[in-house]
Design a protein that fits this description.
11 helices, 66% helix
């Protein structure tokens, strides 16, 4: 799955990419993702690895991320949108070349952990929700998302994405199209089945 057979060696490399607060967040996401994976039937080892790697490029300079994204022909709406999204797409590229991670499920979970997308896989949902609820997170509404995540993964994700969309609108920031599509997909699925299923 990757060239890092030793967990501590991998974590040492990950830690070198970020400041301590971001590293503690990373550990929290990995732990939360593993727990959610066990609860909902995803692969806990893949969830943990995606958690370790999801913010690999978060603390990199934006011009470095931009160069990577341009070189890999990322969509113009991403390049012209909020820079906060760049790290996820850059990480999905970089962890292949630097760490040898080639598992498409892990790469997709890293790529879409900030935006979501239509038809998210179980692992993608697990990592995305874990990023919202890991123990170091403290923002209005996080406890409600944590409570939902205990019994309904789709409801937790829908609530989390809805909160992000509201926040961006209130701040008069652009909403990346995939996030709106992901939210609409979850809500329409709820309507079709009469409720969410994780």
């Amino acid at each position: 799955m990757n060239k890092w057979s030793n967990r501590e060696e991998l974590l040492t490399h990950v830690r070198a990419q970020m400041h301590d607060k971001r590293y503690q967040h990373t550990l929290g996401v990995a732990e939360s993702a593993s727990l959610l994976a066990k609860r909902y039937g995803a692969d806990p080892l893949k969830a943990e690895l995606a958690g370790f790697l999801h913010d690999y490029c978060k603390c990199w300079p934006v011009d470095k991320m931009f160069e990577i994204l341009v070189r890999h022909d990322m969509p113009i709406e991403l390049l012209e949108g909020e820079k906060e999204l760049w790290h996820a797409f850059a990480a999905a590229i970089v962890i292949q070349s630097e760490l040898g991670v080639t598992d498409p499920e892990i790469l997709q979970a890293v790529r879409y952990h900030t935006t979501g997308r239509q038809g998210m896989t179980l692992l993608e949902k697990v990592v995305c929700v874990a990023d919202y609820i890991e123990p170091n997170r403290n923002y209005p509404g996080v406890e409600e998302i944590r409570a939902l995540a205990l019994h309904d993964l789709d409801a937790a994700l829908s609530h989390a994405l809805g909160g992000t969309i509201r926040f961006l609108i209130e701040k008069q920031k652009t909403v990346y199209p995939l996030t709106l599509i992901a939210y609409n997909d979850l809500v329409s699925r709820k309507g079709r089945v009469g409720g969410f299923n994780g």
